[in-house]
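Example 3.2
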Amino acid sequence: MAASRDRRRGGPSRRGLIATAVALVCAITALGAPGTAFAGTHAPSSVTAPTDPAPPPAPTPATNAELEAVREKLDALYKDAARATEAYNAAEEKAKKQSEEIDELTGKIAGVQDRVDDLYERAGAAARAQYRSAGLPPEAKLWLSEDPEDFLDGARRVQEGEKAAKGLLADLVSTRDELEKLEQAASSRWADLEEQRRTKDKAREKIEKQIAEAEKLESRLQKEERERLAAMEAEAARQSHAAWVGSGILAGLDDATSASARRAIAYATDQLGKPYVWGAEGPDSFDCSGLTSQAWAKAGYPIPRTSQEQWRQLHRMSVQEMRPGDLIIYNSDATHVAIYVGDGLMIHAPRPGRSVTVAGAGSMPILGVVRPDPHRPNVEED
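Structure, written as tokens:
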């Protein structure tokens, strides 16, 4: 009855009380939530949500023209590094030779010094003997001698001794002269060795500087730009090789080769995938001439260490006479070399950041071709 009266009087219904209780609980929960703050007892009229700072705009990809300029700059840097590498390798080879010559001279000096010491000892003994026997004149010796024949025999021995002493002194003088010349030669080799060490240090500094600059330039590129740059490099090499093949050069080439050339090719093939490292000649890494010199050394034909000396000293062939195993010299200053493997292909150690690989023989400007074993027949028994 009381509830009926309340409903008739317009009082709160049960449904209304429940709604009020729910609203109160929600309000209390909101007040107790972490990070919730209110000014006084009044709810704010509006709430502004915090906003994150806008992300920086994506860098604009380099244009093809800009990447081409980068490619040309990298090519120049790596060519400079190749020239410095060849200078380093040449200085290293000269330093090795000079060290060997110094070791040989040191051995000779020790031997000659022993001879000098022996001659000094013998000369001293002869001088002492002559001094002891030179106390009386020959006439007195003859007067005092009981047997004139003994005296004459002794006189002959003295004359022979004097002659031997003169020869001994002459040997001593000439041996000392020889020793002095050897010491001067050793001193000169030491000076040359120090000069080669300075040359190596300068070359090393230039190599490291050029490679560091190239790596810094490449590191500025985004991944997509590096991929495009690699594609541009490959395309440039492909076009160069296609033009070379298109000249008809392969039509006249002979693939018959010697057993030694086949051994050199087999060695180079086994090195595929190993990294380029300047100044390296195996077994775990190579530079261009380190690879070719080791390949032919393993084939039984030691050749010069550097590409420039390979070009200067080995037998030159025309490109039209090229056969597998021959070395292709690249660039006008002979700073790169590869081994020709037939079918228009070569194996080489390209540059820092790359590995030993197979490439088109015409993918770079060819200076000429050299053959390490020119007198071997094209077909040779193993």
